Amino acid sequence: MSALIDLRSDTVTRPSPEMRRAMMEAEVGDDVYREDPTVNRLEQRAAEILGKEAAVFVPTGTMGNTMGIKVNTHHGQEVICEARAHVMDWELAMMAWFAGCLARPIRAEDGILRWSAIQDHLRPNGPNCAGTGCIVIENTHNMAGGAVTPIDVVEEICHEAHARGLRVHMDGARIFNAATALECSAAGIARHADTVMFCLSKGLGAPAGSLLCGRAADIAQARLYRKRLGGGMRQAGVLAAAGLIALEKMPARLHEDHSNAGHLAERISRIPGLRIDPKRVETNIVIFEVATDDLTPAAVSAKLKERGVLINPVGGARLRAVTHCDVTRENCGQAAGALEEILAATGLGK
Description:
single chain, alpha/beta, Aspartate Aminotransferase, domain 1, Aspartate Aminotransferase, domain 2, 7-stranded mixed β-sheet, 4-stranded antiparallel β-sheet, 14 helices, 40% helix, globular
């Protein structure tokens, strides 16, 4: 049987031979004591590359976002985010459970929060309202199909928020995809955000790990939250070694994933019974709709699996395909071909 074409997420990648060697040879120590030299190097490089004073290594993006929101808020405040934000829908309500904050979602059709929409939802402290404490920008926006927030939009949000004493956290799980699409540096995108989290295991191909970056004082506080959340990983240099390779080398190839995603989206747009605007695919995430009553997204996913292709439904009539370093242009064509077969079997396109 041929290998599966796994388009469920860019988290499914396998570490490269170079990463595996680095993990085997990693110099390690107890990171809770700040004695793991490989983790220390990773945190230093992450802070440098993101243009921040300090960084802390965490097991997951969810933990990093939770810590980022916590250091930017006080218990009982509101956090503004886009209505499909990962911090609200996919992180087990940690904003409420750990940070003690209420999400104030704002729907943006293209997934891009703008100050013109945010300003109408700001709430002052008062006898009846929980005041706004923080704004979260997700860049790229996962469930908006990898949408990229332009730098000028980020800067306006940060400028206006800071003028009102509010803080900004960036869920930059795929910030290097955003930087690739905008042809700029990750630091240029995150420059004015108070904290930014990015993942090594999405797009960059590392087996695990994320970084939270920001001011030194905020990151020192975040370390205490990491310990409370069970994120003290001891000899974590075996993971950080792969993370260093991911951080230093993998952003340079992300344009390949974007090109493959665009190719896949274009092929899907020509299949009767499926709906997507390929012009809206900016990065490595392709979200498309099943536009026929003859098939559900779950049925399409199951039939794709029978043909060796893994693509997950993501709610409503939608499915999501994510390109990554373990998926080739040929694989994308094969996935599109499988979709064509499935839809043709319903009588569409004949």
